Amino acid sequence: MKKKLNFIIKNKTPLNLSLTFNSGQTSQPPWKEEKGYFHELFMIDREPCLLKVRQDSVGSLDIVTESPEDLPKKKISSKIREIFSLNDDLNQLYDFLSEDPKLSPTIDFCKGLRLFKAHNPFECVISSIASSNCSILRWTRSVQDIKQKWGEKYHFSSGYFYTFPSPAVLGGVPEHDLEEMQRFEDNLPGEFVFENNLKACGVGYRAKYIIKAAQMVREDINLKKLAKMKYEMAFDTVLELPGVGPKVADCILLYGFGRGEAFPTDVWIKRIIEHLYFPGEDLKPPEIREFGMENFGQYAGYVQLYLFHYARKSGLLDSLQKKK
DNA sequence: TTCCAGGTAGTCG
DNA sequence: CGACTACCTGGA
After folding, report:
1. Chain C bases under 7 Å from protein CB?
2. Which portions of chain A are predicted below pLDDT 70?
3. Least buried of A63, A172, A190, A285, by fewest C-beta within 10 Å?
4. A255, A250, A249, A247: which is closest to A20 by C-alpha?
5. A247 tagged catalytic
């Protein structure tokens, strides 16, 4: 017997849900879209809960939930507020952006765009490692494959959904088809296709990093402690994970821990910042990162998000590519 | 077909 | 420390 809830979350400052889903943030893939609602499975208080979300005509969030057990509405709405960063006051952000002529044009392109957080820190660690890849499309497929192969499967009225596997499960997964085959020893079925290994998820050479990182999260690195650390301390700690360099570390802290002072610096942000603030110069990525964190402070994560989306929509990104 | 992208890890000086 | 290259995979 499924329990259902239906309620509304009103937002005081702008929110654009579909823009938030489709702005290329690599914290979690876009949700399944069906009958006007976006669907995704969450674990809330260790219980599975399907969330269906849409924006109604006045911009509020219309929420429908389905879960085997009763879950307090308060817990559900607080999860939703966390995932979509609904507690961030975007009007304050826009005041901040308005003060910088380089940033103010981003507002019109990004109205209502919010940081789209990960389900939880561990999932964020792994999907961020997988994101050091060339295309969002491949990254999306990889994350979905990992969930489908090793996550827990739950059925709801709109179909099957999978959780992200735990550190213990993911840490024990075969890296490639050879290892998968070896685990069968002599009981190998005839026409067997090897697909339950990490490389089959298209993560390439990151497969071994992902497995090792999962093991380290399980045994060594306590993610809960990270939340209370000073930023640079937390940064240095996640850097110890294999496959995690400066860019991925900042993504983990931004999307997995809500640390808004993070300024993840990829090649695109580097090009955009150089174009806007240091024309003709060539800065090192750590210099760009430092510039972002010093100048944008608590808004650094949003500035990075807004600059990227603005650059993409305004055609700036294309021109920066050609120039090379 | 070859080449390139994306960020990290590893190697060399 | 800095500069350079290998790593995978799929799209140009």
Report:
1. 3, 7-11
2. 1, 188-190, 322-324
3. A190
4. A255
5. yes
Pairing of strands A159-162, A153-156: antiparallel
pTM of the model as a whole: 0.95
Q: Which contacts qualify for A174-178: CB closer than 8 Å, 24 or more apart?
A: A174/A198, A175/A199, A175/A207, A175/A208, A175/A211, A176/A207
Name the burial class of residue A58, with classes exposed (0-12), middle (13-18) and buried (19+) by CB atoms within 10 angstroms of its CB: exposed
A36: left (phi over 0), alpha (psi -120 to 50) or beta: left
Instruction: Spot the catalytic one: A149, A199, A247, A270.
Output: A247
Residue A148 has which token pair? 């489908």
pLDDT the model gives residue A324 = 42
Residue A217 in contact with residue A116, Cβ under 8 Å? no
What pLDDT sits at residue A2?
78
C1' of C3 to CA of A83 (Å) = 41
**What angle do helix axes A90-98 and A300-314 make, rounded to 10 degrees?**
70
Q: Are strands A32-34 and A37-44 parallel, antiparallel or unpaired?
A: antiparallel
Largest CA distance in chain A: 68
Is the torsion defined by CA of A154, A156, A160, A162 positive or negative? negative
Q: Is A185 left (phi over 0), alpha (psi -120 to 50) or beta?
A: left
